[in-house]
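Recall the central idea of this unit: under ordinary conditions, the amino acid sequence of a chain determines the structure it adopts. In this exercise we apply that idea directly, starting from the sequence alone.
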Amino acid sequence: MSADEPRWLNDEERESWLALVSMLIRLSAALDTQLQRDAGISHFEYQVLSGLSMSPERTLRMSELALFADGSLSRLSHVIKRLEKRGWVYRTPDPADGRYTLAVLTDAGWEKVVATAPGHVAEVRRLLFDPLTKAQQRQLREIGHRVNSAIGPDEACPNQQS
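Accordingly, the structure predicted from this sequence is:
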């Protein structure tokens, strides 16, 4: 085998890869479906609102919020515009550095998160945690940390603790 030849996946690796890809796609779709049905928002919109709700003073720089929500600044800007129209978020220049824009969760946005979170958490628990043993949950966390680190340490979720 030459150094230029790909290291093809063996049967077990291929099965693991396909199971993971299917899970990522189906889990994302299932969470989006639940949130659309029960709260009228997308999973990405919920991630944005949730990220703000967990931040000091319910405020984050747009760049940090994009990282938390795992989306581009462009996508986040479009979503923030929709959330502003609903009165859940507003933007303001960062007083510490005017080159940045802050996203701020309003009281109405906070109420939306509080109303939405129980159903979302129940669905996450039903789909992800209930089918797994405690040991598998720990393994999943470790696997997530390792894969995120391999992707790049700067791209890990800001609330992720190693």
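The domain at 44-149 is CATH 1.10.10.10 (Arc Repressor Mutant, subunit A).
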